[in-house]
Amino acid sequence: MTKITILLCLCSTLMLSQNISGTLYDAEAAISGAKIMNITSKSITSTDSRGNFDIFAKLNDTLIFSSLFHHTKQLVVSESHLKNIQVFELRKIVNELNEVEVQGAITPKQMTEDEETNRQNKQFKTDVEKNPHLYRRPNRNSGGIDILEIGRRITKLFKRKTTKEQIIVATPIEAEDLDALFKTDKFFNDKFLVLNLNITKDYKHLFFAYCESKIMSPSLLQPENRIYLVDKFLEYSEAFRTILKESQRQ
Length: 250
What we know:
Blueprint: H1 2-15, E1 17-25, E2 35-38, E3 43-46, E4 52-58, E5 62-66, E6 73-76, H2 79-83, E7 86-89, E8 100-103, H3 113-130, H4 147-158, E9 165-168, H5 175-184, H6 190-195, H7 204-212, H8 226-249
Parallel strand pairs: 1-7, 8-9
Antiparallel strand pairs: 1-4, 2-3, 2-5, 5-6
Helix pairs in contact: 5-7
């Protein structure tokens, strides 16, 4: 009878401890390269090019889904998650600056002096043809031509205009960058992780993955910005520990 009871318990445990398979997507398409972290078992995996993933989990484990430019999603594993292939959605982080054009690098076209002069003359001629009334205004001292108005028009015409601000966006800090930092830096090391951030070594790589999901600027890795990096670590470690505590209560 005892053997049967033990066997039933083992079967129950196996049924509730297995891999969760699923697909991660947003409102437009599947999300590739996203990280799925099992905070409870301290394991990490990533989605493939089609957004598919597979990660070991058991009932009541806490999973965190994170991806660049998407809001982080937290999930507590239920029985339904262990039975079928799952589909999870992440919400995109909407850029409120609709007129900002993001580019990796900007290389302005170089023009010779003659080319620039011809371009300006052509632009000026076109504007005169389209708006002749703006270049002529009754004026006794200028024979019907308003010199000041022409000056204002030319200044306005050749003033550089842009409806889109061009900015250079660098690659955010990744978990691998933080891992390398903590291996080589004299200040940011395992001692700092445990004593100052209250993150045990077992959770180090999960914490780095969590920091990556926060899209940290690479400028924080510069020596002169060390104090700002400390502030970020303190902020994110507190949130990370809260997630751990919540997962342990469940």
